[in-house]
Structures are given as C-alpha cells and as structure tokens.
Amino acid sequence: xxxxxxxxxxxxxxxxxxxxxxxxxxxxxxxxxxxxxxxxxxxxxxxxxxxxxxxxxxxxxxxxxxxxxxxxxxxxxxxxxxxxxxxxxxxxxxxxxxxxxxxxxxxxxxxxxxxxxxxxxxxxxxxxxxxxxxxxxxxxxxxxxxxxxxxxxxxxxxxxxxxxxxxxxxxxxxxxxxxxxxxxxxxxxxxxxxxxxxxxxxxxxxxxxxxxxxxxxxxxxxxxxxxxxxxxxxxxxxxxxxxxxxxxxxxxxxxxxxxxxxxxxxxxxxxxxxxxxxxxxxxxxxxxxxxxxxxxxxxxxxxxxxxxxxxxxxxxxxxxxxxxxxxxxxxxxxxxxxxxxxxxxxxxxxxxxxxxxxxxxxxxxxxxxxxxxxxxxxxxxxxxxxxxxxxxxxxxxxxxxxxxxxxxxxxxxxxxxxxxxxxxxxxxxxxxxxxxxxxxxxxxxxxxxxxxxxxxxxxxxxxxxxxxx
Length: 469
Fold this sequence. Notes:
Radius of gyration: 22 Å
Number of strands: 16
Strand content: 5-15%
Largest sheet: 8 strands, mixed
Number of helices: 17
Structural class: alpha/beta
C-alpha cells in the first residue's frame, strides 16, 4: 500500500479515555440470544445480549430512522481476514474514479479495531480529529441521556457507542457513501442495523471468535452472511467449500444475488501490490464496479491504477526502516492471518539477516486460543525456513492496559515457544518501547516481524514513525 499516513496521534488521548466509559466486562453466562426476535445461530451462542440489540432504538433517539441510514449508500463488509484492507481499497478506488470524472465525492469509512477510537472513523481516508470525535461522541451521549443516565437505563457498549458516533459523524458531514466494516460475525453484529445497504461483501472466512460464532467454517459463514439483504448484490472472495456452500445457501434463502470474485482475473492490474493483498483488492474492484453500475457508471483502468497506488491502511503488510533495522508490521491476530503474515515475511525479508519476532495477543481464550496461534505462526515460519533467532513477547499496550495479559500468561507464552523452538532466544517485555533498548537484539540489519495484534501493530507504528531515520 501507499505512503505512511492516516494514523491520528494524540498526546492527551482524551478520546480513548472518553470511550473507555462504555466498556463492559465480558459476561460469563452464555445466551444464544436475549431477544426472541433474533434467529438462533447454529451451534454457537452470544454471551449476554447480542450487540445488535438496542442499536435501532438508539439511532432513532438520535433522530435517524432507516430511511436516513439507507440514504448513506452503505457498503457493508464482513469476513474473518482482510475486512479493513478491502474497505480501504474500496475507499481509494471510489475517490480515484470521482477525481477522474471531476466529481466531489465525500467517502466515510468505519473500521475497527484501533487503539485511538478516532482512527476508526475516516472521511476521505483520513481519520477525523480527536476534537471532532469528542464533539460528536458527546453529542451522542447527550442525546441519548447518557451524560446523566437514569437508574436502570441500558448503556451502549464500547463498540456500539463508537458505531453510533461514526454514523452520527457521517450524517453530520453529509458524506455521499459509507464503507462499514463489521466488528465480528454479522447476523448479530452491532453494525447490522443497516436495512438496505447498496452492496454487501464477504472477505476470506476462517476460524476465529469461536466462542460466539462456532467452531466450524460453516457456522462462521452463517454469521458472516447475516449482513445479506434481499435483492442487494453481494460479493465474496473464493472460500473453502464449507464456507462457500453456506454462503450460497444463505443467499438463496434471502434472495440475494451472490458473486464470487477471482483475484487472478485482475492479475495484471494487481501485480504492483503485495501478493497477500491481491484478493482483497480484487474484491474491492468488483464492489466498486457494482456500486457505480447503479448509475450506469464504470470503473476504468486508470481509476484502478490510481486507486491502488494511493491506497494506504496502517498496520497491514507495512514495512518501516528505523534504527538501522527493517520492521515488518502486520496486525494478524488469527490463524489464517498469521499464516499469511509468515508467508509475506518470507517473501519480503532478508533471510540471511538476524530475524526477530515481536508478538502479542490479548484475546480472551474463549475467543482465540493463544497456543494455537503461536503454534500456527511458529510452524509456518519453520516450514518457510524463516524461524526467528530472537522472539520477544509483549505484555501490554502502553496507553491502554485493557489490552494486556498477566505476568503468568506472559511466562506461559515464553515457555510454550521455548519448548517448541528451543533454538530461539526468548525474551519478555512489558511494553513495545522496551524493545527499542534491546541493543543485543535490535542490531543493524535485523529483520523484525511485529504481529499477533492490531493494537500491537498500531503502537509499534506510532513509536517507529516518530523515530524513523
């Protein structure tokens, strides 16, 4: 992707402190659904109330009915891997097409996760300012009566509140189109209040969020396809047979025209971008073509070239040169993504140099099994002859200790790796900044892979870009 920009930096981090108020502890009791109006998911359940519950009511309190939301021309994107990158390509391609035609197009984009919540809400690719985020967020808070809530009032959770703030921001900004990434799942997701999106899309489906979505591709695909809407065109990358069959079944049930996209149909156009992003970009091209065809418009080759070249989404297959080393940053945080990150590292890094792995993952074990993640990454690196000489495990994110593991868990990570790959030197640090002081490891020419968490990637990028030489 293109030049590094698009990460809002703030010393005060007031937006994060404001948003933290809406975090809730993870419920211990499983409930498939707390509302009889919601369908029952096959072989999976939600803990507590499904995130979609309450969203329409809150939007109506803000003055936004279905007609207003539908008028935003929403492109809704679900999947396990590549959602954010696909959204970024759609954004860049739409704006490249508009520039060629001399059209003033304002594109809103909502993606997650990010440490700083204003980074989740973008207009024409740029994150909104912290000041604007706080202004819009506090407006939502006041209109919902949350600044001084009555006893018993149901408060939105963290992601629900960010999504409400995002759509309030887009409506106030009078954007022409919104690209919306699902948090996770689809059927019960907080973003699934959109009744008539213009297009829906599914990126690669893999095993992730198993506690909520189920432990098979078929069950997970059921959730992802929950964003399908009757007669609304849907696009998907090619999937494993179990996932593809379930998507086809759900499309038929919902009367949805579903199209599967092959990356190799755009091989000549996509050769300039990382191999790992070509499938996401091919999907984005078809999404944009479908979007433009509504008004008999078309996406031309110059639009694709310009859109691909100008697209940038932080922390996805990003390479930074800093302190005499090369840092390879990818926020892969599930088994499917980590396998791709390992292959990318093999393809772009100097295998003859000192190889360093910096890893963190803060997911609850009910969502992701850290041992399986480490095994997947370690075996992939080993099979590619790219095993790390040094491995550094990070315990927490500096500016948000919500993303942290205990010292005992950190020891478990380190011991697990040392037992499986004893040739690696294993170290533990509290925070990313401490890595930069490890001169015996971070030496000139080192090839450093930073992965396991988008939050880890965001913090690392912030530090590295401040110190780029």
